[in-house]
């Protein structure tokens, strides 16, 4: 995600961002959007509206970078076909469909996700369903399952997402082992402490 050849765009309104997407969503791969906070007193699109419009065109937000005390920029790009869909974004697109705002590209990104499984992959995380392989690993360490089960919903979701989001089976297994081993001594992996 090198910033060198990526356009930076400052939309002053939702309509302004939508116009950019209409013109560029098929030819550009990504853009940095500039947002201003209320202290700046500059006109700015809200993050929620920016995400809504991006979803309409099959795009998604990701990395955020602070520019100064009044502004930040966020990276928006075409959604990859295997990109997972959060509960929030699924609810957003449901409303956008009802409101007739989705474009062909946006609807296509939903259809592709439903066909390849990326649409539903986070449902089990949202429902706090512990996958069989993690359950078995936790059971193999004394006190591990009890510690895992005692975590808050948000902590469990983070850990379940970490397992679910692994791209390779070896990575998934490594994460499961780390969670289980540390849970047996009452700890979470370092990045979740």
From TrEMBL:
This is YdeI/OmpD-associated family protein. The lineage of its organism: Bacteria, Pseudomonadati, Bacteroidota, Cytophagia, Cytophagales.
């Amino acid at each position: 995600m090198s910033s060198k050849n990526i356009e930076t765009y400052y939309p002053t309104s939702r309509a302004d961002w939508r116009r950019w997407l209409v013109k560029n969503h098929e030819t550009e791969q990504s853009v940095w959007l500039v947002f201003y906070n209320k202290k700046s007193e500059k006109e700015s699109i809200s993050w929620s509206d920016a995400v809504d419009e991006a979803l309409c065109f099959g795009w998604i937000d990701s990395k955020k970078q602070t520019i100064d005390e009044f502004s930040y920029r966020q990276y928006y790009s075409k959604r990859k076909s295997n990109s997972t869909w959060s509960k929030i974004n699924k609810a957003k697109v449901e409303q956008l469909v009802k409101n007739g705002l989705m474009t062909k590209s946006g609807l296509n990104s939903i259809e592709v996700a439903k066909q390849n499984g990326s649409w539903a992959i986070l449902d089990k995380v949202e429902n706090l369903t512990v996958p069989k392989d993690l359950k078995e690993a936790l059971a193999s360490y004394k006190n591990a399952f009890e510690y895992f089960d005692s975590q808050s919903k948000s902590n469990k979701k983070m850990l379940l997402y970490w397992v679910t989001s692994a791209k390779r089976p070896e990575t998934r297994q490594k994460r499961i082992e780390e969670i289980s081993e540390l849970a047996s001594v009452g700890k979470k992996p370092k990045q979740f402490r």
